[in-house]
């Protein structure tokens, strides 16, 4: 279905709410508030792409002049550049276009207009691999789709191990909203009944292939679990959404950062924003870069936002009774810090001084690759026809502390035959014998990489650089963030346990990577405006509402109190749904 017609933007009107950002968070806020009948203006900094033309999910590598690779005038930042240079990484590079590291992945040409141009969007400070998407839908256009719930092992982690703060909610508070997200957007997966990784309301699961089943069976003997990838993908279809199709297992999922042009994989425009536009209550303005939350100087309450047109540079204001930030964790913190006024001299909602602080994410790097010898030379299988392979949930520090670090990590992995056979580059030889070897080994490799919880620490923070501005003249973020000892000890254990699990399963080890990747690599940035019940040590209440400014909500990952080791997007959306329901109720009662 084509996108719905857009309503005309009326900047003389005072909207019930203005939402900043159209990714998972902003899209969900638009869906929930418009379904409550509120008149909403959604401002998105990036453009609206003709996304089907960008993604071309059915194009084979050999139909593309560079097998999906970037044009020669473009450059994707490498691991070495992030390690040995300091941001702004694009400064001084001769290339016409510079992108973050994800554009070094297969199929980058299909997503180059989705991610930001690093030259226009600099940042400074400590090393950080910041992946951003500026277009309608933000990063949801290219996300990896692993859709996991958090549990009270996460929400009440501080009570369990004494570090940091508990969340101001427990699993029982958010569980009904996880259910709503599952049913509204669709999620594929397999029930495992694990208290530390609650099941969703799953649609048909994707299938494990034989190498993955072999590992699952062996892990069961170790008291560990391997479950099919829990994917934010509708495998059975969604009768209530005409913009999305069920997954046909067509193969393009292996083209990482490639997206899904039939929208079986969740993306915010087709999953949330277009249906919200169909209510008649949502007005969308793309190319609108917000740089300040405006304040009523008498009451200190938010009265709207100031933005520049991203194409013309012209300045505008939008008026609203409620301002909702969903610009992504780091961009929302930037906006709050930029919004200084007489009433809010440290930035809006920042009387605690905690905005930009307590940053957390996932530490990555350690991984293992193995060879399942009995699969060499076996007929090739279609393993691209599913969103991904498997997930091994956390097994450390659950019943009791079992390690020299706190919290835990999980593994994402897969095996099988892929459109882009990753081992082809490292296979020696040439000619017909080389091709046969690549084909024979195509489905026999299995690999997995870990995602571990980074502890939130006050001293890990971002502030505004007083000297550097982006292309629109807006001051940029400056990073002050480093991994701690806990993350380093955890990473060492990730590599050891990965090796142990493969060896126990009888999988021949091809390689174990022990190196930690640069901060930010996980693309799971969280914290910076955490929730809590004490306004002195937190920024938002349990409904993501500013303690200082009750008509300001921050509905993205910045509100998260700790990172857990599970991927955050499903939780971002469940929390946002809960907060927006609460807000609509308050609006009805005249309390906001
Ligand atoms: C390659 C990749 C793989 C990923 N894999 C997974 C995964 O498997 N599982 C998972 O849970 N998560 C994954 N993620 C992360 C996931 O995409 C994010 O958690 C999610 O998109 C966050 O939603 P958000 O709305 O906070 O931010 P975004 O999706 O980034 O949306 C923010 C939007 O705000 C807009 N914006 C920013 N600043 C402004 C401004 N000043 N004014 C107006 N608009 C603004 C941006 O243009 C953007 O459209 C992945 C991300 C990437 C890139
Ligand atoms: S395998 Fe399914 S989710 Fe992945 S690109 Fe194809 S249709 Fe979309």
What order do the SSEs take from the amino end to the carboxyl end, as H and E? EHEHEHEEHHHHEHEEEEHEEEHEEEHEEH
End-to-end Cα distance, whole Å, is 37 Å
The low-pLDDT segments are none
Radius of gyration: 23 Å
The shape, in one word, is globular
Number of strands: 18
Helix and strand content put the structural class at alpha/beta
Distinct ligands: flavin-adenine dinucleotide, iron/sulfur cluster
Helix count equals 12
- The overall pLDDT average reads 95
| Main pleated-sheet profile | 7 strands, mixed
Helix content: 10-25%
| Strand composition percent | 15-25%
Describe, in plain words, how this protein is organized in 3D.
The chain is α/β, with parallel strands linked by helices and 592 residues long. It has a domain at 50-134. 22% of the residues lie in helices and 18% in strands. It is built from 12 helices and 18 strands. The strands form 4 sheets. Strands 1, 2, 7, 8, 9, 10 and 18 form a 7-stranded mixed beta sheet that branches. A 6-stranded antiparallel beta sheet has the order 6-12-13-14-11-17, with helices on one face. Strands 5-16-15 form a 3-stranded mixed beta sheet. Strand 15 (461-469) and strand 16 form a beta hairpin. Helix 1 packs parallel to helix 8, helix 1 packs parallel to helix 12 and helix 6 (171-185) packs across helix 12 (569-588). The longest helix has 20 residues, at 485-504. It is globular. The mean pLDDT is 95. The protein binds flavin-adenine dinucleotide and iron/sulfur cluster. Iron/sulfur cluster (SF4) binds next to loops.
